[in-house]
User: Fold Diphosphomevalonate decarboxylase from Leucopsar rothschildi.
Amino acid sequence: AMAAERGLTMATCTAPVNIAVIKYWGKRDTDLILPINSSLSVTLHQDQLKTTTTAAASRDFTEDRLWLNGKEADVGHPRVQACLREVRRLARKRRGGGEDTATLSLSYKIHIASENNFPTAAGLASSAAGYACLVSALARLYGLEEELSEVARRGSGSACRSMFGGFVQWQRGERPDGTDSLALQVAPETHWPELRVLVLVVSGEKKPVGSTAGMQTSVETSPLLKHRAEAVVPERLAQMMRHIQERDFEGFGQLAMRDSNQFHATCLDTFPPIFYLTDLSRQIIALAHRYNAHHGHTKVAYTFDAGPNAVIFALADTVAEFVEVVRR
Ligand code: DP6
Assistant:
């Protein structure tokens, strides 16, 4: 109430990290962030990894400002601006042009503060949680209630998938304006309660080649990526949805590993090549295969994004034993 008297309105949201099991890599439109293939991810629980963002608006603010993990950042970044513009456009549309005095003025400047509880830019999909959270906080600030994965996509492609929990598909869409390139929930988080995710932090350092630049070079130079998008992903996506529906861990895990490996193969096929995996990453891959061979079936599955850190999928009953094996 005191904040309202001072003409300050605030909204805080949190957003989760998501890990793709069918990877997004490559854009057909770099401005609208439209992908060359659909992708599918698992949204992680927010107890361990999350972004928290507060957006505040006041008539006393003289400029828009942004802080990331306590340090002021460039609010003029084109992707931040795209999200701001889109949310404000939707809010204006909703109000039907007339400025309602009961709702927050769209002309007020805003201050945004965002914090991750995990290392940024280390391949832990922080931009996904970050932009999903930014869009959610802005939407709450302006009282928007619609589904906004299309807006989150303008911040970072993978961010559209962090707008939902559980298992999420980002459908590539066909339209040039991107209105059909959005996220859809395939199954809710309650669908597969035994599924666990381990993050093995190989390095907390910033990656040398960001995903935005890396995937663009891949689109321009990798024939394997073109083949993957056209001939491999559509079938894999349908297969992965079936494995999830049936809670078939073996099918799910094997396909996740294959897709991660193919993504990193397209990185190697990029010219000049991009290396995200390190020797330690590859040791983890070998360990997972040895562990599965020892048990005679797929009990753990790895996946790696644009960085060296391993994400391991396993069922609850396998976690303690596999963690012990990793420690040794
Ligand atoms: C390897 O969503 O970070 O994690 O759209 O340029 O922001 P931009 O890229 P980003 O790329 C993520 C790539 C990936 C695979 C995935 O999450 O699907």
Summary: The chain is about 40% helix and 20% strand. The mean pLDDT is 94. The chain has one domain: 8-92+103-327. Residues 33 and 154 are 6 Å apart (CA to CA).
